Amino acid sequence: MISIDSTRLGPALGGCRIKAYSRWQDGLADVLRLSAAMTEKAALAGLEHGGGKAVVALTEGSSADWTGARRSELLADIGDLVEDLDGRYWTGPDIGTGPADMAEIHRRTRQVFCRPESDGGSGDSSGPTAIGVQSAIRAAVEHRWPGRELSTLSFAVIGLGHVGSLVGAWLTGEGARLTVSDVDPSLKTLAQQWGAQWVTPEQALTADADVLVPCATGGILSAASTASLGCSVIVGAANNQLDHPATAERLHERGVLWAPDSVVSAGGIIAAVTRELHGATAAEAEQQVRGIGGRLATILEDARARRITPLAAAGGVVDLRLRTGR
Ligand code: PPY
To answer: I want to staple 267 with a disulfide (CB 3.0 to 4.6 A). Which of 12, 18, 128, 204 is the partner?
Structure first.
């Protein structure tokens, strides 16, 4: 399933997720929600692109069947479908896909980001995404505690996947006090390497840490979980962190500063677009990605001045861009 949510600012972009769902309708709900989030992400990143997403909804328990020749056929079909959309949608990596898959899709269409660098693409987007999260963490901390060093603060990272593990390693290097968690217990060894405290994801959510850094799947912030949070600031890469927009109000009422994930997690698309469409070098792209911190600071300041939530302030930026088309 491919959803093109908006082409108001330019061709839609968003990754291709290959994942098992108990019902294909759940995959449909996912592709619609995720493509709308990409419209916001691209608009907030200042890109001349809209939002889209592709979801291949596998039958539960069948993931192991989609390897080898069958996977290649699937990827060829995805490429053909993208090509049929005449440039209105560009795909890329997401959960369940990576640079090698993008190279296969590229045999059928040019509208694909993040092939391996050896193949002419910009490669794995986790590195740039993590750099964006780092610059957002610095901006959110500076907003809440001006002048404070990261080494004087405590952080709880939920999810040590491609992005979370990079952010955790960086926080360790900064000398911050760290609590980490993942659904995969084998990642406990990472916590030991870092000298970080290892807890369950549920415990991490309520941990007594200054900053919560969600880097796993979405929907972890709800009215219920908000009531038991132990942090003052939330800033992380997970997509669609709020179960419902009203949760932004609950966080605001509790005095928790929440950085909208649509701003924080845009490093991957910024790097891919600037390198692959605008011909920038990796170093130049990294400079663009570091702009996320400044963008987040502007949104947080706007929210503070107007006594609105950061979600509402970010929504204002999206609405203006979509209304004016610029
Ligand atoms: C996202 O940013 O959420 C994505 O969809 C991944 C992505 C990364 C780079 C290019 C296109 C999509």
So the answer is: 128
53 has catalytic annotation: yes
Instruction: List C-alpha distances in Å: 32 to 43, 132, 247.
Output: 17, 25, 20
Q: Is the CB of 50 under 6 A from ligand 1?
A: no
Q: What is the pTM of this model?
A: 0.96
- Which tens digits make up the pLDDT trace of 97-111? 999 999 999 999 999
Confidence of residue 294 (pLDDT cuts 50, 70, 90): very high
Ligand 1 close to Cβ of residue 128 (< 6 A): no
Which CATH architecture does the domain made up of 2-38+48-119 adopt?
Answer: 3-Layer(aba) Sandwich (3.40)
Fold of 126-265+295-319: Rossmann fold (3.40.50)
Q: Please say whether the beta carbons of 216 and 238 come within 8 A.
A: yes
Alpha carbon distance 298, 311 (integer Å): 13
Cβ within 8 Å of residue 31, ≥6 positions away: 1, 2, 3, 17, 53, 54, 55
